[in-house]
Amino acid sequence: MMLKGILWGIAALIYLCSPELYAQYVVDTSVSINKIYGVNTVDQTYKVDGYLVTSWYEPDTTYRPASGERVYENHQAEQLMNAGMWVPAFEFINIIGKRQTANMRLVITADGRVTYNERFQGLFTTEMDFRQFPFDHQIFELIMEPFSYEQAQLVFGSARIDIETLDNQSLSEWQMQGEPEARVSRSDYAHLQSGALSHFSRLTISIEASRKPDYYLWRFILPLSLILVASWAVFWIEGFSERLMTSFTMMLTVVAYTFYTSSLLPRLPYTTLIERMVIMGYVSIFAAILVIVFVKIREEKGRPVKHVIPRCRAIFPTLFLIAMSMLIGVNSGL
Amino acid sequence: MMLKGILWGIAALIYLCSPELYAQYVVDTSVSINKIYGVNTVDQTYKVDGYLVTSWYEPDTTYRPASGERVYENHQAEQLMNAGMWVPAFEFINIIGKRQTANMRLVITADGRVTYNERFQGLFTTEMDFRQFPFDHQIFELIMEPFSYEQAQLVFGSARIDIETLDNQSLSEWQMQGEPEARVSRSDYAHLQSGALSHFSRLTISIEASRKPDYYLWRFILPLSLILVASWAVFWIEGFSERLMTSFTMMLTVVAYTFYTSSLLPRLPYTTLIERMVIMGYVSIFAAILVIVFVKIREEKGRPVKHVIPRCRAIFPTLFLIAMSMLIGVNSGL
Amino acid sequence: MMLKGILWGIAALIYLCSPELYAQYVVDTSVSINKIYGVNTVDQTYKVDGYLVTSWYEPDTTYRPASGERVYENHQAEQLMNAGMWVPAFEFINIIGKRQTANMRLVITADGRVTYNERFQGLFTTEMDFRQFPFDHQIFELIMEPFSYEQAQLVFGSARIDIETLDNQSLSEWQMQGEPEARVSRSDYAHLQSGALSHFSRLTISIEASRKPDYYLWRFILPLSLILVASWAVFWIEGFSERLMTSFTMMLTVVAYTFYTSSLLPRLPYTTLIERMVIMGYVSIFAAILVIVFVKIREEKGRPVKHVIPRCRAIFPTLFLIAMSMLIGVNSGL
Amino acid sequence: MMLKGILWGIAALIYLCSPELYAQYVVDTSVSINKIYGVNTVDQTYKVDGYLVTSWYEPDTTYRPASGERVYENHQAEQLMNAGMWVPAFEFINIIGKRQTANMRLVITADGRVTYNERFQGLFTTEMDFRQFPFDHQIFELIMEPFSYEQAQLVFGSARIDIETLDNQSLSEWQMQGEPEARVSRSDYAHLQSGALSHFSRLTISIEASRKPDYYLWRFILPLSLILVASWAVFWIEGFSERLMTSFTMMLTVVAYTFYTSSLLPRLPYTTLIERMVIMGYVSIFAAILVIVFVKIREEKGRPVKHVIPRCRAIFPTLFLIAMSMLIGVNSGL
Amino acid sequence: MMLKGILWGIAALIYLCSPELYAQYVVDTSVSINKIYGVNTVDQTYKVDGYLVTSWYEPDTTYRPASGERVYENHQAEQLMNAGMWVPAFEFINIIGKRQTANMRLVITADGRVTYNERFQGLFTTEMDFRQFPFDHQIFELIMEPFSYEQAQLVFGSARIDIETLDNQSLSEWQMQGEPEARVSRSDYAHLQSGALSHFSRLTISIEASRKPDYYLWRFILPLSLILVASWAVFWIEGFSERLMTSFTMMLTVVAYTFYTSSLLPRLPYTTLIERMVIMGYVSIFAAILVIVFVKIREEKGRPVKHVIPRCRAIFPTLFLIAMSMLIGVNSGL
């Protein structure tokens, strides 16, 4: 009697540690990614094109061929599934809308192994942090679960992830970092049954990549830096009107830059590194205008301040360099 | 006889108060929202991705399994529905177009409980008020009704709403306020039958959220404020031509700002808070030009007005601050 | 014999006046509009989301229920139609592409009444006249005909149109004028049969609406007016170079305005009211430049014209006001 | 024997001249165009919405009704075609993607006449020549062939084309020229069979239309002309710096014009009339700058050239008028 | 015994060299391209519209007609495939999403030849190198493989590629170079089976084309060159303020050019030829500003440098020409 209880306890322990021992179906998966593209910073989405291969042992012998293997493509595979063959529906948790399936295939072997293979394309979403943009790196994820079958019926077994090298890596905007990872875990839902949690097996694929900042360096950071440096020339100009009008022209140039940026950068509730640089540009030119007007007011009142303008020739570049190095050094949240 | 009448009256009263006692089917619902995104201010629309779980008791025993529960996915579920199983079509009243259903599932238990579950994505519309933009808050709604079955046949029972925390809340543009709400009510239609009202049970899900204004503060309100403040420098410039040309440059800068804004802001029949700020900018610079030309005319006529320009150095900032505080204080309809 | 002829004549007369007496099917319609949105001025299109309810008496008793009514939704209704039940296809004549049908329903009563109900969304087109833009009003139309059945087989009977008040009318760009109208008429086609006209019953739904011009007033007409008024300041400036450069800056500002407008306004083969205003702006500044150069030439030749510039200070505003009032008063075709 | 040969020769001759005598099916067509819109100059595409009516004699009596005619709509028509009724698939050769079919109908008469009718919408492509843009005229074409049946089995018989007058012609950008034309011809393909040509009957519908240039005249050519004319004012300005800065401002204005144009005009490998005008603007202002600097250099070297600038006041307008008239007169390929 | 081994060795050798001798099905292909368009530089994609003809010998006689050939179109062909007829699914490896099939056809001859023909449209991707843009040339590829059948079952036999001359080659942006090529090879996959490679037959179609640079020459390179040349005029201007303000105006003009470019050019992680030209423009104007300020500083300190500015009149054009010729001569990766 006692022995029986101990045996049951061991069984329960084994179950908690390795649910695949008890699940009705253990599904091995292999995902191969062709291309990740169309990264949309505003909605935090990206498109993935790839292959999904899932495979399990089917005890039911109804659809097994006498020998070898039998291949069913597209409509023929659908007919089989409609006729009642067990092929679970998988869903990507972090997909937006529906995935497009260009082709699908069902292979059944004489010894009961079923392999379902499809080429899919979908729009996925994940948390993206653009605070270091354009020096950011992101983790592109695919999170997959069976749509209907809980952990008691279906668990993910071995998982494998491949990245195709179809695209010339030296030409694309993103550079993969480290190895892609496939992880099996469990997720719990409360909304499916009232008063009870549902447990689903979950497969998470993560690909870490860093952005190549070249485009933004050459087309954005370099010219903006030159404009800001050029704006300091205002302190060598003589005459109040000339100084002011030159500053206003610089201001207009930076405003124009802002418009250009807004088509380039995401509309985020926080500021990216590149935006902080633009804000610095604004503030710097505005400070120059304040200095110029202040000097003018003092002159009008008969108390000229000779040294302010010449000193600014050194102060502005110094402050700018300090601010720049802080910007690069600190990952501040502003 | 009399007693019977009283009993009928009580029954009618109960019916009016609690239609679910009499309806043929009582449908419990549970909606789980993954993501609200793609808020379009012009058409007043937003996209919702989520799960819809509906559940009811089916007295007809035709499709019940002998024991436990039976799961039908996608095409298999469709076949069952085509064969005649009662699964009501639900429609979102405030949807635009058709909802996309990535996966669907029908679960039937031996004791007659039917659960229909789908993942959906759709474009929804609701009244949005952008008068306080970018400091606005909106109520995102999903209004659902059975497409064909009136209240006598189908009423919504218990309703539940969950919001997934998949997305990092600190990174998105909207911040949820309070708890999401699910409310069951009744709606009446006149266009379905001539001379009679049709009564439908209605489920309304409301999610209140406020916009994080950071993007607009840093990229719009701050630089525009700096430009407006800088425009007052015109009153320190001497010489009519210089004053005028500087004012014109400022005008051009604000015009450039307007173009930028029009890609940022909705095209609404009323003015948003941010637009009123731009209009103030226009009017302020125009007033400065009027003052400058007025002073010039008086000079030409030999009646110079010495004090106007210096006084403007104080009057313009003061008026601007008053107007700004009114703008923030008052929710005027302009 | 004679009597018979007279009777036939009367019958023919009745037929001509009231075709529904003789048509095989009289279809009553009821259209309920949820939302009209996405008005595209270039293609002259708009999107409509609504319900279409059609109803007729079916003499064939095959599909009638024994008693009460029977409801068929979506796929079940399609199966019935495929099996041979007569449900006519309706088409919107002025639709672009195909309408999307989110849900559909077929109700058949024991006494032979068939009601077909669908929720539809489509892109419609109609003649739009933007000459008075942004003070224009348009008639949004839905023109419906049976796709296959001529007047001898199918005529529209009673027609009803409802506009949902789901959207807050005070917030949208269009304001409905008067009552929406549903009109039944006849249309004839020559391309279906060689050498013979085909007659179809036609249902026309018209909704008249006027645009709220507030957005264009605040964001376009007011700033442009201020710029034009400011451009007259050029006549107070002294010195040829200053005058010319200020005029050029104004010209550049109005050019910038044109770019802004082109994203705002339709690209039409005629000029809208707002465009005529921009053209006036161009021509006015160009005329100022001509005057300035003319005065300069006369000066160079030693015949200075003292009074031209001062007079322009009065002439330009006067001409502008006259042109403006003409623009508003006259609906010229330019 | 000889006679037989001659008879065969005659038969072959008749066959070559009139293949429809021998083809198994002669298909009469009638196309009715509702709307041509969405002309995309870059991809050389346009959208067409219309009706396609095809009709032929079917010797097989399987599907003929006993008397009168029988109408099959949409799904019912599809069922008939799936069951094996001969309805050939037609394809538009110059379509992009797939055509959308909103409704389709099959009418079979007791005497064997089959009429297939559909409403279609598609994106079509044709050679477009924009060298005279915006004074160009284009030929919109629809080229149709049977997808599978060669000339021996199917030839087009009579062809008819109608243009609906639904759209108010005075309001659209294109004006139809002459009568639309429907032409039957033959096309040969080598890629279907190795070593043999396949012959298909082809129906070509051509609609010639010319663009109304009003929009481009008022919004582009007029203001650009005014700017160019205004740029000549630079020759009346005195002082090297003023001349140069005014010229630079004009250059900036024309650059701004180029940006505006690029959203307005196609990105073509050849220059359109309107682009040649912009290039003339560039070159003209650049020439003025060259002249100004040349005069300056001569002055510095102590050999002033008094007459160059005054002469340019006449030379530039003259050259511009000559270039303009050449541009309009000659259809050069540049 | 020994003989047998040798024979086997020879057989294996033949197999390795010519797998089609042993494959169950040898599929001959013929691809005809109508149009390549919509080249998207950012995602490195293009759209292809064409016909795919595949043909093989089917030993199974079930579906053979008694004599001649039998044609099945669209739905009828699908029914045959659903019924079990062997028609392999092909997939384009480098497609994005799913291809659209407007029409398809199955032809079966009495002697067992099966021909599958479809018209397809799809979005394809390939490596594109824009370093020489707009003087680049690209290779447009279509890579096709059977979706399910490995080399043992299916190999590609003869392959043929045709390019339709429907489009007027003189009007499109791309000019085909040399002959298009169709190549059969083998590809191996590891992700389909654990621990084993799968071998598939692969058909690669390559079309080499070079871009016609006319648009970019006239609209971009010419005006930018003129602006840069004009910017050297700054060295003839006298007075520090005038020099600086003119330089700033030029800087603003080039900044405006950058905005214009960013809508014209891809956002790539490397710089294109045209971008390097813009960067040169920036740097050149910035260098001029540095020189101007340097001269000013020396003047202020009482050590004027007379010869710097006049020498720059020659140095800047010289350096520019050297840089330009280097840019054109060298295909540097920057």
From TrEMBL, chains A, B, C, D, E:
Residues 25-212 form the Neurotransmitter-gated ion-channel ligand-binding domain. Keywords: Membrane, Receptor, Transmembrane, Transmembrane helix. One of its GO terms (molecular function) is extracellular ligand-gated monoatomic ion channel activity. Gene3D superfamilies: Neurotransmitter-gated ion-channel ligand-binding domain, Neurotransmitter-gated ion-channel transmembrane domain. Its main location: membrane. It is found in: Membrane. InterPro entries: Neur_chan_lig-bd, Neur_chan_lig-bd_sf, Neur_channel, Neuro-gated_channel_TM_sf, Neuro_actylchol_rec. The keyword Membrane applies. GO terms for cellular component: membrane. CDD domains: LGIC_ECD_bact (cd18988). The chain crosses the membrane at residues 216-237, 244-265, 277-295, 315-333. It is a multi-pass membrane protein. PANTHER family: NEUROTRANSMITTER GATED ION CHANNEL (PTHR18945). This is Cys-loop ligand-gated ion channel. It comes from Vibrio mangrovi.
